[in-house]
Amino acid sequence: MALQLSGANLSIEDIRVFLKDNQKVSITEDALERVKKSREIVEGIIANKETIYGITTGFGLFSDVLIEGHQTNQLQMNLIRSHACGMGKPFSQEVSLVMMVLRLNTLLKGHSGVTTDLVDQLIYFINERIIPIIPSQGSLGASGDLAPLSHLALALVGEGRVHYKGEDLDSREVLNRLNREPLVLKAKEGLALINGTQAMTAQGVINHIEATALGYQSEWIAALTHQALNGITDAYNENVHKVRNFKEQVEVAARMRDWLKGSQLTTRQGEVRVQDAYTLRCIPQIHGASFQVFNYVAEKLEHEMNAANDNPLIFEDGDETLVISGGNFHGQPVAFALDFLKIGISELGNVSERRLERLVNPQLNGELPAFLSPEPGLQSGVMIMQYAAASLVSENKTLAHPASVDSIPSSANQEDHVSMGTIASRHGYDMLENTRRVLAIECIIALQAAELKDASLLSPKTKAQFDTLREVVPSITEDRQFHKDIENVANYLKEQAYL
Questions:
Q1: Residue 53 appears among annotated catalytic residues
Q2: Are 445 and 356 spatial neighbours (Cβ–Cβ below 8 Å)?
Q3: Which of 53, 236, 429, 492 is catalytic?
Q4: Which residues contact 407 (CB under 8 A, 6 or more apart)?
Q5: Which of 204, 325, 470, 487 is most enclosed, with most CB atoms within 10 A?
Q6: What is the spatial distance between Cα 95 and Cα 131, in angstroms, rounded to a whole number?
Q7: How many C-alpha atoms does 120 have within 13 Å on its Cβ side?
Q8: CB count in 10 Å sphere of residue 255
Q9: Which residues pair with 161 in a beta bridge?
Q10: pLDDT tens track for 436-461
Q11: PANTHER family, alphabetically (predicted)?
Q12: What is the pLDDT of residue 62?
């Protein structure tokens, strides 16, 4: 089954399924007609020698420089070559693939003036999984993601580097193998490819998919910790959460009750203690707040995924044609959302590290061995796992600084305010990977603590998780290289995000 694109209604879940099932894409007939109509308008502009930004003029500060009709195609090639100034490690293949899907979806809205040849080339690259190698650094997030998207465009015209069937190759070599011609850019098309927010949005979509999955995973991991510490279930009572009015908090509490149902390790208030520490008692409030963030961010990302965000934009208003230079390429709405997402991700890691500290600290863990060591003193057990988790959450606190509060003027002050949204998206994924490793550490320690308490007493649902994870990470019977266990569990959690 193919993912059908129309320029509207594309969702984050559509992208998750597209990646999971390795889908192809197709487009609707209506979308194709809109592309053709907008292209006719561009051809008319050139024929009539009208002065329109980016079609018959230069770019940025050069917007007042007129371009001769015979040079309009060369203008577009010069644009993407000169703007391909990306640096640093490449975006992941998933992000680059999603970037192409999102750019295609934007062009299908029919406000960009591109040819059907360009649309066909994007579809071909997506469906054949010819994935541009796109450096992740170098975007200001307005006028869109110029540098990253220029590298995407270079691949389409046979001048970039691509991933193809496990190899990193020149795109021209891949196209030659497939007897496919490189795209020849026409007037407006280079600008239509690079004026937009697809780098930050694609990385943001991946961040959201994996962060949301991690939010759900953090609940069963927390449920294991809760049982290993003989936590009190009364704090998850539905009445408590309904009177707070936050839907996400109510939902987390319900899922925690479900995870803990039937456990012989949980307690009621007053049996062992009157109250648990906040990191157990307030899981619905803390995790629920992160889900509030995730829901907000999903709304903003899905708006942008289905937006016309290049410049200029082409409209038909009755009998009148309008070509308007605006600023829909400005990434500020997405940048704010992605900075907010960083906070939601960070707090999942913060609370996880505090829970796992309770599991390893003999003053707090209810008579479990210090650091769950098989032989305290001779063997360190999980002591340094807590150190490692503390390091990661501390690093997250520095990365959580909002990128969107910064701006540096560019293009000789013509582009005098920028969003830095792509930096927010990249830092967000770094934080996500850190947080996933923190939760992997809590998982490993909670599994061991539950085993020491007697895993047969776990709730049926968490016992099933225990059994599954014991296939990923074995019981700790002696000190070993725990970094391998951490990576194995973190990789398992990431893989589960797309299932």
A1: yes
A2: yes
A3: 53
A4: 417, 418, 419, 420
A5: 204
A6: 10
A7: 10
A8: 18
A9: 170
A10: 999 999 999 999 999 999 999 999 99
A11: HISTIDINE AMMONIA-LYASE
A12: 67
* Residue intervals in the chain for CATH 1.20.200.10: 204-497
- Kindly state the tokens that stand for 320: 């009148």
Q: What is the DSSP letter of 1?
A: -
Q: How many CB atoms lie under 10 A from the CB of residue 452?
A: 18
Token pair for 90 = 């490449």
Helix or strand (DSSP H, E) at 222: helix 198-228
> Phi/psi of residue 442, each to 5°?
-60, -40
Radius of gyration of the chain (CA): 26
Would you call 456 exposed, middle or buried from its count of C-beta atoms within 10 A (0-12, 13-18, 19+)?
A: exposed
CA 482/CA 473 separation, integer angstroms: 10
d(CA 369, CA 299): 46
Q: Which residue has the tokens 């407006």?
A: 188
| Paired tokens of 108 | 């299908």
The conformation of residue 369, written as its DSSP 8-state character, comes to: P
Across the chain, mean pLDDT equals 94
- The residue count for the chain: 499
β-strands 25-27, 3-5 pairing? parallel
Taking alpha carbons only, the member of 107, 103, 167 closest to residue 133 is 167
Half-sphere exposure of 63 (CA within 13 A, CB side): 13
Candidates 3.40.640.10, 3.40.50.920, 1.20.200.10, 3.40.50.2000; CATH matching 204-497 = 1.20.200.10
Please enumerate in sequence order all residues whose Cβ is within 8 A of that of 18, keeping only pairs 6 or more positions apart, or say none.
3, 25, 101
- Write phi, then psi, for 178 (nearest 5 degrees): -95, 5
Residue ranges matching CATH 1.10.275.10 in the chain = 2-195
Q: Where are the alpha helices (DSSP H) in 229-282?
A: 238-242, 247-260, 278-281
User: In which element (H, E) is residue 3 found?
Assistant: strand 3-5
Q: Which amino acid does the sequence have at 199? A: A
Q: Check if the beta carbon of residue 344 is closer than 8 Å to that of residue 248.
A: no
Q: What pTM, to 2 d.p., does this model score?
A: 0.96
Q: Is the model's pLDDT at 71 over the cut of 80?
A: no
